[in-house]
Amino acid sequence: MMRRREVITLLGGAAAWPLAARAEQRALPVIGFLNGQSQGAFAHLVAAFRTGLGQASYVEGRNVIIEYRWAEGRLDNLPVLAAELVQRSVDVIVASGGAHLAAKASTSTIPIVFTSGGDAVKEGLVASFNRPGGNATGATVLSATLVAKRLGIVHELIPSATLIGALVDPTFSEASDQLTQLQAAARAIDQQVHVLNASTDNEIDTVFDSIGGVHIDVLLVGATPFFRGRRNQIAALAARHAIPTFAEGRDLVESGLLISYGPSITDIYRQVGIYTGRILKGEKPADLPVIQPSKFELVINLKTAKALGLAIPDKLLAIADEVIE
Predict the structure, then answer these.
(1) Which CATH number fits the domain that encloses residue 161?
(2) Do 157 and 243 belong together in one domain?
(3) What would the pLDDT profile of 111-127 be if each residue is shown by its tens digit?
(4) Together in a domain, 301 and 319
(5) Is there a domain that residue 150 lies in?
(6) H/E/C letters for each residue in the chain?
(7) Which pLDDT belongs to residue 280?
(8) Cβ atoms within 10 Å of 225's Cβ, excluding its own
(9) 1: in domain
């Protein structure tokens, strides 16, 4: 015969199990969002990421928590910030703004969804684009492959340009490939490239102060998270020194640069949000092919063109995805 105490213990255990299960079900998954730049500079891209998350049925604060870590341009802080997210035992790390290598070095088990401007295979992030393997997948822009196209647009707009300035962040992992591609494309059309290195705010100022003595015809801004985060500073200096400036990314032209050509970065971040949601639902990074851009944009700032005294050829206006007036 079962004693009364045993009956109470049994009933208590049976009642407690559903409560514990319900408590576990209420616990929200946690995304670690790691970025090498600043929150303000990347706010529009975070919004695009949240849009993608929403398309995967996750809404921040409702059924998912996002822990943000911003390096504020101090990339040497990224390993520490990545380690914090690993210690926090987040469910997935989203690595953007130049944080992809630090995230990959921090964990081999927590899923990683990255953005990269380079070749994710060469960087050791994935085994291949179609079958990433390991714990990481994401989006690769392959910015270096677009340099020749961008230089062709320069030639369409300013056929007389012979000396091209290249604003380069030498600390950026993909800068060397971008510069190599630019130099090769310039040689093919008898143009020269003058390299201007800058990896701090003060160095950007110094570079623009030196432009007058070099007499470059056009400035190409390297496709890096650092320059994207400093787009307002670069646009203001380009206007002050009256130098036609080309870049990669709609947001740089919205800030006042002349022309951009490249993939839609907001669409990339939206897709990263979708991938993050799919991983939270149980899919593995190893099985999700690396996203490569399919949507490219030519954006022209007519207001800037007029300030520079440049007439945009009808051919370019006809193929532009957006003209800012």
Answers:
(1) 3.40.50.2300
(2) yes
(3) 999 999 888 998 999 99
(4) yes
(5) yes
(6) CCCHHHHHHHHHHHHHHHHHHHHHHHCCCEEEEEECCCCCCCHHHHHHHHHHHHHCCCCECCCEEEEEEECCCCHHHHHHHHHHHHHCCCCEEEEECCCHHHHHHHCCCCCEEEEECCCCCCCCCCCCCCCCCCCEEEEECCHHHHHHHHHHHHHHHCCCCCEEEEEECCCCCCHHHHHHHHHHHHHHCCCEEEEEECCCHHHHHHHHHHHHHHCCCEEEECCCHHHHHCHHHHHHHHHHCCCCEEECCHHHHHCCCCEEEEECHHHHHHHHHHHHHHHHCCCCHHHCCCECCCCEEEEEEHHHHHHHCCCCCHHHHHHCCEEEC
(7) 98
(8) 24
(9) no
For the ranges 16-30, 181-195, 197-211, the lowest mean pLDDT is seen at 16-30
Please check whether residue 67 lies inside any domain of the structure.
yes
Distance CA 90, CA 98 (A): 20
- Count the domains in the chain: 2
The span from the CA of 159 to the CA of 94, in Å, is: 42
> What residues are paired with 167 via a beta bridge?
196, 221
Residue 35 lies in a domain: yes
Report d(CA 229, CA 86) in Å as an integer: 26
- Is the domain of 128 the same as that of 171? no
Q: 223-265 pLDDT, tens per residue?
A: 889 999 999 999 999 999 999 999 998 999 999 999 999 999 9
- Of all residues in the chain, what percent carry a pLDDT higher than 70? 92
Q: Say yes or no: 269 and 184 in one domain.
A: no
Separation of alpha carbons 107 and 27, rounded Å? 23
Q: What confidence score (pLDDT) does residue 256 get?
A: 96
Same-domain status, 33 and 130: yes
Tokens of 193: 């490239």
Tell the residue number behind the tokens 């800058």, with chain if given. Answer: 198
Residue 7: band (very low, low, confident or very high) from pLDDT cuts 50, 70, 90: very low
Residue 65 pLDDT grade (very low, low, confident, very high; cuts 50, 70, 90)? very high
Tokens 């970025």 correspond to 35
